[in-house]
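Title: [Solved] Extracellular solute-binding protein 3D structure

Original question kept below for reference.
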Amino acid sequence: MTAWLRPGRRTRAGRPRNVRLPHLRLRNVHSRNVVAAGCGALLMVLLLAWQAAMSAGPSPPAMPRTTLSPPSVPTTPQENCGGNDAELVVATGDDVSTGSVRREVIEEWNDPLKPPADPRAKLLELSGSTDVRRAQMAALAQAGSCAYDVLVLDVAWVTEFARHGYIRPIDLDDQDKRFLSGPLKAGQIDGRQYGVPFAADAPLEFRRLDRRSGGYLLQLDDNEMGTINFLETIELGGGKVLDGDDRTAIVLDRARDDVWQALTSPKRTLSSTEESADVLRESLRMDEDASVVAFKESKAGGRPVAYMRNWPIAFHQLASDPRMRDSAQKLRFDVHAPAGPGGVLGGSVLAVSRHIKPAKLAPAMRLINRLTSPEVQGRLFACGGYSPVLIEVYERYEAGRGPRCRRQNGSDITDPSLDELEKLAAETRKSIEHARPRPKSPYYAQFSELFRRCARGVWENKVSRETFFASAGALEGALNGRVQDDRPLCGKDGT
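Solution (posted by the thread starter after getting help):
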């Protein structure tokens, strides 16, 4: 059952009614003088939907080389922008936590924590696909809609949304030291903060303790997770694709063997050991959820599975399954940060729509303050597996004082023990601190689709070494808004 269909739980009583969390505020943003007719806005929505469909399906036919321009964002009269004045809409992806914890903290904010005059917060779950969710959010922003007030935005899309004018800059009131450095910088674009860190993500290696031999699963399906895993395969293997402060310089050099060897190696070095395991070809059809299922079953395509790369949230998905515990309730798996730097930083930030109605600005910031408080961050981690962005939460676990999940009576979910949470917190923080961001480019989506197509082509034995390295210029062009299309580079025919 999806999170959208899962019923919410009643909140506990006895909380103070008003919560004052003043450390965040919005910066003033001057409206741009952009002329856009209603038909133009509709055209942009249709164009974006077409782009999303193309990125999810076969490569489009060749077309003349063009340079992408930032889309015009209409100045829509606030009274005509849509939205509900009585609700503060928080647009997010599916709540993939065990127990719909994000929905619970929103419900608790509504009753009894929020100031009485503030609109009620409404969690609106969009597509579970990161790529499709980005397209949905961007399409409404381009149309001047204020249907969404607060966006739970993947860190990979912050640059696009900031530079295209979809979201507003935010002041953090010199509270930067509360946050882990990587998630904080992921929300900074051109020296300004556009996103408040909400959940951090970095890769972890999961090992079956009851099976010492078996294959290694990655997530190489044709979506954003595939891009992340191919980048990690190269960079954890000692190669390099991206460089520079914003990671927008392409450094694919055909004279170097490390990139090619890392990408084509059938082995993955195991964390904290000198051993290696075979990467299963079934990984080409795996996303996060499918690989968790295969890891639980300890097999994929009839082949044994002993290891898996996944996000920290997979820990709770596994720990809550009785099959993943022995008769003494000990976990049948272990978890470690990857061996060495090179993991890709994931996670999300809380951003405020540029089109939010003025009366909702202060309520939006009060809600964001609550969602980034130590209490909520600790609970999202302990009960749902969302990795915290606050240093304080990790330090509490390090000192043995981190929170455990206290679910209401009647819950059939097996929650991790304090010892298990302490281990998870330590390995997660280590991975986050070594992880590297994706390129800070408003055209990252174009880069992601092209890089993934070429890397998958290599794994499918359709793209040669020469062709893969020849993609360097097109990848750099994609990050700078130039569409590669004079020939089907890394397309179906391998050229």
